[in-house]
Specification:
The chain is an all-alpha fold. It has a single domain (47-188), classed as Four Helix Bundle (Hemerythrin (Met), subunit A) (Up-down Bundle), CATH 1.20.120.1630. The protein is built from seven helices and two strands, in the order ααβααβααα. It has helices at residues 3-9, 12-30, 43-60, 78-102, 130-146, 149-177, 179-188, and strands at residues 37-39, 112-113. It has a two-stranded antiparallel sheet. Helix 2 runs parallel beside helix 4 (78-102) and helix 3 (43-60) runs antiparallel to helix 6. It is elongated and about 50 Å long. It starts with a helix and ends in an 8-residue tail after the last helix.
């Protein structure tokens, strides 16, 4: 089958659903590859961003089952929709680069792992939270592909919840790893997007 025939026969919204599912499954399997946790903030301090992540992702796809074109903000050509799938793929690839680079210090929660130290190379030289950046990029591409108001509300909620998580994580790591070392790192590296 020729590539253009495959792209016409396939559905970008279906592909992006699979992309999110495969990323999430691989992410959960990789959770077993991490050092033991030696410290973490109180659960209550993580509750708000966790709920935001769940609600935001659900809102991203809330309009997915609507078949009517009237609900869409725009109707992008097929090639543009596949480009958005490619951008989401790049976002998830950026996540995985950061996850692999972080190694056994990764955690889905805000934690201090055994032998925890500041990593400021690879994707962590570009931004302090490249995993969150990659997810936000994938969410933005998904919202643009879905092209529904509720999807953009989901994008805003996802972005805000990861910003909250990043702030909590930085406050926790400053306390755990030393304010001087973390402040030096944050002074030369942006939080979520280079230059912002």
């Amino acid at each position: 089958m020729h590539i253009s025939t495959f792209l016409r026969a396939s559905s970008p919204p279906f592909a992006i659903l699979w992309l999110w599912g495969l990323w999430y499954l691989s992410w959960m399997i990789a959770a077993f590859w991490s050092n033991r946790t030696e410290g973490r903030p109180k659960f209550q301090s993580e509750l708000f961003y966790r709920l935001g992540n769940i609600i935001g992702i659900l809102l991203l796809f809330a309009g997915h089952r609507r078949n009517g074109h009237h609900a869409r903000l725009w109707h992008a050509p097929l090639e543009v929709r596949w480009c958005l799938v490619g951008i989401a793929t790049a976002g998830f690839a950026f996540c995985w680069w950061a996850r692999i680079h972080l190694g056994r210090m990764w955690s889905s929660s805000v934690t201090r792992k055994a032998d925890h130290h500041i990593i400021d190379t690879g994707p962590y030289a570009l931004v302090r939270h490249p995993i969150y950046t990659g997810i936000i990029i994938a969410a933005a591409a998904t919202a643009a592909l879905e092209a529904q108001p509720v999807s953009f509300i989901g994008l805003v909620v996802v972005t805000f919840s990861f910003w909250l998580k990043a702030r909590l994580e930085e406050k926790f790591l400053r306390r755990e790893l030393g304010m001087g070392a973390y402040d030096a790192y944050s002074s030369r590296t942006s939080m979520l997007f280079p230059g912002l």
